[in-house]
């Protein structure tokens, strides 16, 4: 039996690269089993995996092959290690938080207002019980074109827009209750905080007081 050197086998492999001399030749079951055992435990290099991926790209198994695979796996009990590995593979395919953030930014404002799948009439509630109203023309609208409802109520009563330093207070602590008589507005967030803690506030720091609208 003639034994080729490693270098000679490499030359033969390079010479035959790209030539599918075995294409279409059916292999016996015994031959396939020998190939399987010969490659068992071998790890393909990244370059080999890339070439294998390109070779199989666009190929789809036939209905007959799919049926055979389904029958061979029917009732098959998989080991715990195998299930854990499959779980790891599935987890690796999930979108990362960074990817989700990029997708959110890309879609932000693409389907505004009534065109959005989350449209509920232009009024929705966010965390803390605060209500938001769809106001696409408001100068201080958010990226999604919404404005806090309690600020819009105070703006309508004052006849002007509230600036960023203006702060609105809910008297009964219920953030979803935006009746005018339940709202107060302060010229600064520090004045608002002092009022909530029972401190002193100057009259000029209160720009709107809904308590004055209450019936005696």
Describe this entry's structure for a reader.
It is a single chain. With 216 residues, this protein is α+β, with helices and mostly antiparallel strands. The protein has a domain at 121-213. Helices cover 40% and strands 10% of the residues. A hairpin with a 5-residue loop joins strand 1 and strand 2 (131-134). The chain is rod-shaped, with a radius of gyration of 35 Å. The mean pLDDT is 82.
Q: How would you describe this structure in keywords?
A:
216 residues, alpha+beta, three-stranded antiparallel β-sheet
**Quantity of strands, as a count:** 6
Q: How much strand? A: 5-15%
Structural class: alpha+beta
Q: End-to-end distance, in Å?
A: 113 Å
What is the N-to-C order of secondary-structure elements (H for helix, E for strand)? HHHHHHEEEHEEHE
Total DSSP helices: 8
Average residue-wise pLDDT: 82
* Largest sheet: spatial strand order: 1-2-3
Provide the fold topology.
Elements (H helix, E strand, L loop, with lengths): L5 H11 L12 H11 L6 H11 L6 H11 L6 H13 L4 H11 L15 E3 L5 E4 L11 E3 H10 L8 E4 L12 E4 L2 H8 L9 E4 L7
Antiparallel strand pairs: 1-2, 2-3, 4-5, 5-6
Give me a quick take on this structure:
The chain is an alpha+beta fold and 216 residues long. It has helices at residues 6-16, 29-39, 46-56, 63-73, 80-92, 97-107, 149-158, 189-196; strands at 123-125, 131-134, 146-148, 167-170, 183-186, 206-209. The protein has a domain at 121-213.
């Amino acid at each position: 039996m003639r034994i080729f050197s490693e270098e000679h086998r490499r030359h033969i492999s390079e010479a035959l690269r790209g030539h599918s001399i075995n294409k279409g030749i059916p292999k016996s079951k015994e031959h396939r089993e020998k190939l399987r055992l010969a490659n068992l435990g071998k790890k393909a290099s990244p370059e080999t995996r890339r070439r294998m991926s390109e070779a199989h790209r666009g190929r789809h198994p036939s209905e007959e092959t799919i049926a055979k695979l389904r029958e061979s796996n029917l009732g098959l009990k998989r080991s715990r290690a195998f299930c854990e590995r499959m779980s790891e593979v599935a987890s690796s395919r999930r979108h990362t938080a960074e990817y989700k953030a990029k997708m959110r930014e890309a879609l932000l404002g693409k389907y505004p207002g009534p065109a959005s799948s989350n449209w509920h009439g232009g009024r929705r509630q966010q965390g803390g019980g605060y209500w938001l109203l769809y106001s696409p023309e408001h100068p201080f609208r958010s990226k999604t074109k919404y404005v806090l409802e309690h600020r819009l109520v105070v703006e309508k009563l004052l006849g002007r827009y509230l600036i960023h330093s203006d702060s609105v207070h809910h008297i009964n602590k219920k953030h979803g209750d935006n009746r005018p008589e339940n709202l107060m507005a302060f010229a600064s967030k520090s004045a608002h905080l002092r009022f909530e803690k029972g401190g002193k506030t100057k009259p000029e720091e209160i720009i709107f007081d809904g308590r004055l609208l209450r019936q005696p």
